[in-house]
Specification:
heterodimer; A: about 200 residues; mainly alpha; Four Helix Bundle (Hemerythrin (Met), subunit A); elongated; B: about 110 residues; 4 helices
Chain lengths: ~200, ~110
């Protein structure tokens, strides 16, 4: 191995090679940029929240049950993703793959409900062009949903690689980075749930 | 792999983090929908719950503070959240406090 002199056998696998460790730190820098990206969308949403024009308000459209299902699906997927990393640190590749597949199924369920919600709104006549409020709703939620969809595709490819190559410092750091991405999307959802949905349903 | 001897394989940390997250979600939901407090009061309370839950995810699930670069990563992320607060509060203040009117009525 080219990086043998950098390997630290006492660290968890994903931190053992210098490249893996630097990739993880670099990915956190990317997440810092993602925080800035989502903050601009939240800022626009807050600024335009009251501009409903002739369209309906949030409280007329949101359904508490649907919101709770979506929140619980994503929260549970974040938990199972954490369990996958826990298995990785016990060097159990089958456990990693199993928990990651459960994570992906929960994530796909979340996307399914989100698509159902969007289609339902469009059928009710609420679209991207209804009002400034709903433009920002669809852009903020759509950007988050797109991130989750990209995450599902990315993790599927990673799992194929993991099944072929097994757990090495290289694959372990990749799996760890994908878990950071997935947890981060749940962090963004916590704020969407709180600021968009719950505040949208407060009278 | 010869990692340091694992003390207990059961993922207590994750389960505790998950249960607290569920509790915070349900309490925020109940506060928003089943109280008749003012919307400002509700917003402040559920925002505090959201920040606690986000911190829980970052520290317990994302292991933000661990590893050689933990300090650097934590500082970077906190700075990211600082930028986010400046952008959100600044934009909201600018767009709702009447500055726009002066420009547009010229």
């Amino acid at each position: 191995m080219a990086h043998d002199h950098n390997v630290n056998p006492n660290a968890p696998l994903e931190y053992q090679s210098e490249a893996g460790r630097l990739n993880i730190t670099g990915f956190w820098t990317f997440l810092g940029a993602e925080i800035a990206l989502f903050s601009t969308l939240f800022a626009s949403y807050f600024a335009l929240q009251s501009r409903v024009g002739d369209g309906p308000t949030s409280i007329e459209m949101f359904e508490a049950g649907l919101v709770m299902i979506m929140t619980m699906l994503l929260l549970t997927s974040s938990f199972t993703c954490g369990l996958a990393i826990h298995e990785m640190r016990a060097n159990n590749v089958k456990g990693v793959i199993a928990w990651m597949i459960i994570t992906l199924i929960l994530g796909a369920g979340f996307i399914g409900y989100e698509l159902y919600e969007f289609v339902h709104y469009v059928h009710e006549g609420v679209t991207l062009g209804t009002s400034a409020h709903w433009s920002m709703f669809f852009i903020l939620l759509g950007t988050h949903g797109l991130h989750v969809s990209i995450g599902i595709g990315w993790i599927i490819l990673l799992l194929i690689q993991l099944a072929r190559r097994g757990l090495t410092p290289k694959t372990a750091s990749k799996v760890f980075i994908s878990s950071l991405y997935w947890h981060f999307l749940d962090v963004v959802w916590i704020f969407i749930f709180t600021c968009v949905y719950l505040m949208g349903m407060v009278n | 792999m010869s990692q340091q001897t694992k003390k207990g394989h059961f993922p207590w940390k994750h389960i505790i983090g998950f249960l607290i997250s569920i509790a915070l979600t349900l309490v925020a939901f109940a506060t928003a929908l089943w109280t008749d407090w003012s919307s400002t009061t509700i917003f402040i309370i559920i925002l505090i719950f959201a920040v606690i839950q986000a911190a829980l995810q970052l520290v317990m699930f994302m292991h933000m503070t661990e590893g050689e670069d933990g300090g650097l990563i934590s500082g970077n992320t906190l700075f990211g959240f600082f930028i986010a607060i400046v952008i959100i509060v600044g934009t909201y203040w600018l767009m709702t406090s009447g500055h726009m009117h002066m420009g547009m009525s010229m």
